[in-house]
């Protein structure tokens, strides 16, 4: 088997991209990689940066900009501004922790394998398709302009897949049953980013693998595998952008961008709106990093400064998604309801027909 693999890899014209490389390396140190799979934005350096930005916002805005448990802006002192007791002791924030723990325990069972396999298959298919259409790799020389383009296209590709999955999760009832767990958060803390049902993880990971590996395949073909993305101090530009945005957008302090910039990039405050249950906020701002796809598909909503954003799934349904247990079994109960309701409707129709 190994011999076959090396023959394939050594055969002329075969281009190996980073995802195939990742697959080969991961099979040997699966658990090591899984253990190191702790989100970057929860490392102390990232959290410290967030607190620093929080202090800066407090100072610039004279104590305004932090939101209460109800999602309303209020003026307060520095400590309450940065670490409000009623948010961090809220049941919702505690449930975030247990959902995160469960998801992380189950993650090694699928994460690395799924990410590497789907990524490698997509990448190799992309390379194969290009070879079929255009022949062998042109083996172009990489330079900073190409690296920037590669970085930008990866960002746009990932954001498009993220948007598509997110949109489908909001619109398709069977998937909303899963994604609702993220939206049942009644307060926002940096950990809320990882408040997901454990079955949502593989969907997001598969999407990310596809989003990254299509441009990886295209650029590996063009440059015969000899191109990398632009990094700043060894960190990918994309990781920087999304890491920062991802943590701060689940922070109770509203961080707005100027309106013109919000038309291009999702400001953290735009995600406050995404978590609001008010009808005008529902199903808006669904991309991860840019605002481009929300603009194209008409889901962009740029909130006013400190707009009221009550978080959660609304008073009517919130009672069903409060505890850890409710949020863990909730999707299964919803799916069961969907199936039985459909069967009941079908039986009724059959009765009318006869
Ligand atoms: Zn959502
Ligand atoms: Zn969110």
Topology:
Elements (H helix, E strand, L loop, with lengths): L1 H9 L7 H9 L3 H6 L8 H17 L5 E2 L5 E2 L3 H5 L2 H4 L2 H16 L4 H24 L9 H28 L1 H11 L16 H23 L8 E2 L2 E2 H12 L10 H4 L5 H7 L17 H5 L18 H4 L5 H30 L1
Antiparallel strand pairs: 1-2, 3-4
This protein binds zinc ion (2 copies).
The site of one zinc ion has 4 residues, from loops.
How does this model look, in words?
- The protein is mainly alpha-helical and 354 residues long.
- It has one domain (15-331).
- The chain is built from 17 helices and four strands.
- The strands form two sheets. It has a two-stranded antiparallel ribbon with strand order 1-2.
- A hairpin with a 2-residue loop joins strand 3 and strand 4 (235-236).
- The longest helix has 30 residues, at 324-353.
- The protein is globular and about 60 Å long.
- The model is unreliable at 1-12 and 349-354 (pLDDT under 50).
Please supply descriptive tags for the structure shown above.
354 residues; binds zinc ion; disordered C terminus; two-stranded antiparallel ribbon; single chain; mainly alpha; two-stranded antiparallel sheet
Describe the main β-sheet briefly: 2 strands, antiparallel
Instruction: Assign the structural class, choosing from mainly alpha, mainly beta, alpha/beta, alpha+beta, or little secondary structure.
Output: mainly alpha
Secondary structure tally: strands: 4
> Bound compounds, please?
zinc ion
Proportion of residues in β-strands? under 5%
In sequence order, what are the helices and strands, one letter per element?
HHHHEEHHHHHHHEEHHHHHH
Radius of gyration: 23 Å
Shape: globular
- Termini separation comes to 60 Å
Give the strand line-up of the largest sheet.
Answer: 1-2
Helicity level: 55-70%
Spans of at least 5 consecutive residues whose pLDDT stays below 50 are: 1-12, 349-354
**Whole-number mean pLDDT:** 85
Contiguous helical run count: 17
Count of distinct structural domains: 1
